[in-house]
Amino acid sequence: MNDDRPDGLSVRDVRVSFDGFTAVDGVSLEVPAGDIRFLIGPNGAGKTTVVDAITGLVRATGSVCFGDQELLGRPVHRISRLGVGRTFQTSTIFEELSVLQNLDIAAGARRGWASLARRRRGIPDDVAAALETIGLTGRADQLAGTLAHGQKQWLEIGMLLVQDARLLLLDEPVAGMSHEERDATGALLETVSRDRTVVVIEHDMDFLRRFARSVTVLHAGRVLSEGTVAQVQADPRVQEVYLGHPVETGSVPSGLEA
Amino acid sequence: MTAVTPAPPSAAGAPAPTDAAPPNRPGGRSRLPAAAGFACGAALLFAVAPLALSDFRLALLAKYLCVAMVAVGIGIAWGRGGLLTLGQGVFFGLGGYAMAMHLKLADAGPGGMPDFMQLYGQLDELPVWWRPFASPWFALPATVLLPMAVAFGLGSLVFRRRVRGAYFAILSQALAAAMVILLIGQQGTTGGTNGLTDIQGFFGYDLDDPVNQRMVYFIIAGVLLALLALARQLVHSRYGELLVAVRDSEERVRFLGYDPASVKLVAYVVAAGMAGLAGALFVPAVGIISPALIGIVPSIEFVIGVAVGGRATLLGPVLGAVAVAWARTALSERFPGTWTYLQGLLFVVVVAFLPGGLASLWALARRRGAERAEVSTS
Ligand SMILES: Nc1ncnc2c1ncn2[C@@H]1O[C@H](COP(=O)(O)OP(=O)(O)O)[C@@H](O)[C@H]1O
Ligand SMILES: [Mg+2]
């Protein structure tokens, strides 16, 4: 925690295949420390699979470095202990536990077994700070399962904060959120990126325009385009993909079928 | 850290917090009722039961309380950790046999051999692996440590390979079957199907004497209370919260930097230790340990008691275990042969209609009561 300097993420030539189907086909990314990188692309482009590869959920070839640590080949919980945290497309908080308990568990992996044997007394400082940041201080004792949808996502992010993740990989964090909730989430991302590196998978173009610092577009398992929001939006290949025309040569453009 | 307070979502989107503590939620309750409950339990076990029950019934209760100790462990492993252990008989048996071996050797006197070994007549001297059990300093710790070691070995293999759910249940049950086959096959040194019987003394006390039987009962009651206190501490500790988290979402826990395999392993090993201790105390209470008492059927019966009582609560497993064991005695006396079916039926009914066990009825009644109180005061 004293180590305030965030690290950058470096993904080089990562490939993931499922039974012969190549979902991620040589993706390389450089996300500098403190960036808010948006990862976009059509459904099935391989965005989630890239995050799965970084966090050790699927086997991948190539190289993924966070700071100077190689991540590929390590088990999930070890990668997490190196400061890499993620959320999932569906909420994965512990619904049967309170907000406080959820955060406390997230903080616990670096505490060691001795503290596990004891009860929690009061609210630990790091947990209190995270509650404040995610705006759930007043709901600390509420069962997580009873939170509103947006609050659940914030709780997920709060868990990454107490976990002391310095790289946050967020898979569609604002899906299903109202406008106000999206704004609040964007502000939250800006706060946490001050001393962390953030990668966000998102579909929502409006959200992207407002909060992305840089963008990578994935398509069919490859990087299609990369740059600032303006650069990416101006890229004709990106427009093509988002207008629904397949870019693969040889396939029939959808407009000519009828 | 500066606070960015996200706009509170619309009031309609936020359901009101539930006031009734759900069965899975540790903490939040004050310690006073727990202490009072503990005192009540102690009074019941140490004063009321010995006064109200005949020697015969008290001895039966001692036996049930041993089953209840196994249930406390299952409540942790299954109720909290989601590990459906259908093979606790193995650990119960390891504890029981370790104790019985020591008591048999003590009965036989220094240098003597247990009666059954002489009976089968194949052995001239005590088998090597029996010898350490002559010493209480080895045998007593072994009743707990041996089951824990076996659970550790098995659990390390199984949990790291991510064997879960029904596969784990079947595997643990297969272990119980294997142990029974092993015991029966080695009749000359294990007593085979008969098991180790006719245990006379317990550390110098004659077990035929009712006074000593009472002493055994008191030891069992005391140990059960101690195990309950331990279970309570475990459930309410951070580890207890983590265990529930692993049960509900193992993957998520892994992404938080924990190794769920170790978390489960602790619960499994603790449950095994409790079952071992229960087996060890069962021996002086009943005077016998045999394959029939530790195989698949008793292993399942342990779990049925826990399911009936309410696996996710602290007391549910204990009450369920005692109730089912008592019903078994009462009903199989009157209708021999039907108990197995009744028990199966009971299990199905509980699983289908009352997954939280009888404890969930209690919680429901309390909630109803609270609602009624609210209505009447408003
Ligand atoms: N576990 C899996 N087994 C087989 N195919 C998978 C698996 N996970 C993802 N895929 C496939 O990989 C491709 C990329 O998926 P994904 O990364 O989830 O896309 P995105 O998140 O960009 O929508 C899809 O075609 C998907 O069907
Ligand atoms: Mg996805």
TrEMBL record, chain A:
Look up keyword Signal and say if it applies.
no
GO molecular function list? ATP binding; ATP hydrolysis activity
Top-rank lineage group of the source organism = Bacteria
Alphabetical GO CC annotations of the entry are: plasma membrane
Q: Does the keyword Nucleotide-binding apply?
A: yes
Residues spanning the signal sequence = none
What is the designated name of this protein?
Answer: Urea ABC transporter ATP-binding protein
Name the lineage: Bacteria, Bacillati, Actinomycetota, Actinomycetes, Micromonosporales
Q: Which residues form the ABC transporter domain?
A: 9-245
Q: Which keywords has UniProt assigned to this entry?
A: ATP-binding, Nucleotide-binding, Transport
From TrEMBL, chain B:
Q: Which cellular component terms (GO) are annotated to the entry? A: plasma membrane
Ranges where the record places region Disordered: 1-29
Segments passing through the bilayer: 32-53, 60-78, 137-159, 166-185, 215-235, 255-275, 281-300, 312-329, 341-364
GO MF: branched-chain amino acid transmembrane transporter activity
Which Pfam families does the UniProt entry name for this protein? BPD_transp_2
Q: Which UniProt keywords apply?
A: Cell membrane, Membrane, Transmembrane, Transmembrane helix
User: Can you tell me which residues the record assigns to a coiled coil?
Assistant: none
Concerning InterPro entries, the annotation shows: ABC_transp_permease (IPR001851), ABC_transptr_urea_perm_UrtC (IPR017778), LivM-like (IPR043428)
Q: How does it sit in the membrane?
A: Multi-pass membrane protein
Its principal location? membrane
Protein name (database record): Urea ABC transporter membrane protein
Query: Native species of this protein?
Result: Micromonospora humi
